[in-house]
C-alpha cells in the first residue's frame, strides 16, 4: 500500500516541477517578445574562465593582447538585429576561398572580413588553450560581427591594426580604406577602433566573413535560423587531391615529393578524413534541411577558376543582387584571373591554369591513396570529381578529372517530418 505521506510528497514534487516549467515557459516568452539575441558563454568556456590556468594564461606577462579586452569579449552580450544580409564562405584551407572571397571583397558596398578566427587563434593558442576553446570563442564572435557590434572586440581591432597595410587590405578592405584616409600613425600602422568598425559595418547592406575554421555547417545553423542575423552560406569545395597537394606546398610538408614512399602520413590522412566527411555531410544538410532552403549555395572551386564571371554572377544572384556583378568586381576578374603572378597565397594568377597545375606534380600513387582515404571516394563521386582510371590518366591533360555535378535532391518538403 502507498502511504498518505508518500502521496503527499509526490504531489509536492509534481507542483514543484510544474512551477519550474511555468517559470521557464514565461521566461522564454519574454525573451522571444523582446526580439533580442542572447549570446551565452558555452559551457567549456565558462569552465575555463573559472580555472586558475585560464587567468594565468591571459596575464600581462604571457600575452601581448590586452587581458581586459580579451576577458570582456567573453562576457554575455545582447545585440539587436539590423535586417542586413550576412554571408559565411564555408571552406577549408587551400580550397580557393581567398579567390572566391575576392569576388565579394572587391565590391565597395560589402563589409568583408578575411579569417577573423586568426585573431582568436593567435590570442588564445599562444597561451596553450585547446582548439575546442578557440572554436567556441570564434563561434561566439561571429554573431557580434554580423550585427556590427564590435564593442567587446577591441582585441580583434588591435590585432588588425598590427598587420602590415598590405595584409590589412586583404583582411578588412573597408577598414583599410578608412585607415588610409584618416588614421595612419608614424610607424605606418593603422589606428582601428571598435567605433570605426561599427560605423563602417553599419553602412554596408552585405556583411561577408570568409572562414576555414568552421568545418561543420551544423555549427552555423543557430545563425541561419535566427531571423535577426539572416545568414546565408556559400559552401566551397575542392577536389581533395589538389587540396592536399596545395596544402603540402603551403605548409612545407615534404611528404608528397618525388621521394614519396607510397604511404600517406598520419597527419595527411587525418586532414582528408575530416575534409571529406564534413563536406559530404555539409552538402547533404545544405540541400535537405528546410531552414537552409534558399540560404545554401554549393560551389566548386574548379568551376569558379574556369569561369570566374559565371561564378560571380551565381554568387550575386544567390545573395539577391539582381543588378548583377558590380563593375569593380568585373575589373578585378579581368586584371587578376589572367595574370601570371606566382606565389603560394597570391590570388593574382591565371585561374584556368592554376586549378589543374597539381596534375603535373602530385605523384600518381599519392593521388590514388588520397582517393581511397576515408570518405573521399564517396565525396568525389557526389561532387563530380573523377577518379584515376590508369597510371597515365593524371598527366594526360586531355583526359578530364572534373565531371558534371550530379543532380542534387532539393525536395525538402518531404523531409519536414525529420526536423524538430
Folded structure, characterized:
- The protein has 420 residues and is an alpha/beta fold.
- The chain is built from 20 helices and 7 strands.
- The strands form 2 sheets. It has a 5-stranded parallel sheet with strand order 4-5-3-6-7, with helices on both faces.
- The longest helix is centred in the first third of the chain and has 31 residues, at 4-34.
- The relative contact order is 0.11.
- The model is unreliable at 9-18, 20-81 and 339-349 (pLDDT under 50).
Descriptive terms for the model:
420 residues, alpha/beta, five-stranded parallel sheet, two-stranded antiparallel sheet, 20 helices, 50% helix
Task: State the gist of this model.
The chain is 50% helix and 8% strand.
Q: Which shape, going by the Cα principal axes?
A: globular
Number of strand segments: 7
- As a whole number of angstroms, the C-alpha radius of gyration is 24 Å
Distance between the termini: 42 Å
Reading the helices and strands in chain order gives HEHHHEEHEHHHHHHEHEHHEHHHHHH
Overall structural class, as computed from helix and strand content, comes to alpha/beta
Residue ranges: pLDDT <50 for 5 or more in a row?
9-18, 20-81, 339-349
Residue-averaged pLDDT, rounded? Answer: 79
Strand order of the largest sheet: 4-5-3-6-7
Count helical runs: 20
Q: How is the biggest beta sheet arranged? A: 5 strands, parallel
Secondary structure: helix percent: 40-55%
**How large a portion of the residues is in β-strands, by DSSP E?**
5-15%
Amino acid at each position: 500500500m502507498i502511504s498518505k505521506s508518500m502521496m503527499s510528497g509526490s504531489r509536492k514534487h509534481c507542483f514543484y516541477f510544474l512551477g519550474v516549467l511555468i517559470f521557464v515557459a514565461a521566461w522564454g516568452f519574454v525573451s522571444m517578445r523582446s526580439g533580442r539575441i542572447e549570446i551565452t558563454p558555452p559551457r567549456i568556456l565558462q569552465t575555463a574562465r573559472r580555472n586558475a590556468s585560464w587567468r594565468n594564461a591571459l596575464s600581462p606577462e604571457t600575452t601581448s593582447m590586452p587581458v581586459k579586452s580579451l576577458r570582456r569579449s567573453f562576457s554575455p552580450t545582447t545585440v539587436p538585429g539590423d535586417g542586413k544580409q550576412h554571408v559565411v564562405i564555408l571552406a577549408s584551407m587551400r580550397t580557393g576561398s581567398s579567390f572566391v572571397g575576392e569576388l565579394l571583397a572587391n565590391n565597395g558596398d560589402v563589409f568583408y572580413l578575411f579569417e577573423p578566427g586568426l585573431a582568436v587563434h593567435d590570442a588564445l593558442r599562444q597561451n596553450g588553450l585547446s582548439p575546442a576553446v578557440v572554436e567556441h570563442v570564434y563561434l561566439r564572435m561571429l554573431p557580434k560581427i554580423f550585427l556590427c557590434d564590435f564593442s567587446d572586440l577591441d582585441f580583434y581591432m588591435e590585432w588588425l591594426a598590427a598587420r602590415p597595410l598590405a595584409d590589412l587590405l586583404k583582411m578588412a578592405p573597408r577598414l583599410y580604406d578608412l585607415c588610409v584616409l584618416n588614421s595612419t600613425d608614424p610607424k605606418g600602422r593603422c589606428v582601428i577602433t571598435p567605433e570605426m568598425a561599427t560605423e563602417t559595418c553599419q553602412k554596408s547592406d552585405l556583411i561577408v566573413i570568409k572562414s576555414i575554421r568552421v568545418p561543420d555547417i551544423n555549427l552555423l545553423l543557430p545563425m541561419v535560423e535566427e531571423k535577426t542575423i539572416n545568414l546565408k552560406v556559400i559552401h566551397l569545395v575542392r577536389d581533395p587531391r589538389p587540396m592536399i597537394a596545395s596544402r603540402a606546398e603551403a605548409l612545407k610538408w615534404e611528404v608528397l615529393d618525388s621521394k614519396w614512399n607510397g604511404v600517406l602520413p598520419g597527419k595527411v590522412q587525418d586532414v582528408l578524413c575530416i575534409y571529406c566527411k564534413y563536406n559530404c555531410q555539409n552538402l547533404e544538410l545544405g540541400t535537405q534541411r528546410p531552414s537552409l532552403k534558399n540560404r545554401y549555395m554549393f560551389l566548386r572551386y574548379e568551376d569558379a577558376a574556369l569561369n570566374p564571371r559565371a561564378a560571380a554572377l551565381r554568387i550575386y544572384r544567390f545573395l539577391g543582387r539582381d543588378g548583377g556583378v558590380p563593375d569593380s568586381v568585373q575589373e578585378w576578374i579581368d586584371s587578376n584571373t589572367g595574370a601570371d603572378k606566382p606565389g603560394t597565397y597570391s590570388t593574382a594568377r591565371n585561374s584556368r591554369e592554376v586549378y589543374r597545375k597539381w596534375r603535373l606534380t602530385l605523384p600518381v600513387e599519392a593521388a590514388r591513396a588520397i582517393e581511397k582515404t576515408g570518405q573521399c571516394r564517396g565525396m568525389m563521386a557526389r561532387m563530380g570529381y573523377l577518379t584515376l582510371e590508369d597510371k597515365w590518366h593524371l598527366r594526360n591533360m586531355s583526359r578530364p578529372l572534373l565531371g558534371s555535378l550530379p543532380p542534387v535532391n532539393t525536395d525538402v518538403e518531404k523531409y519536414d517530418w525529420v526536423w524538430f
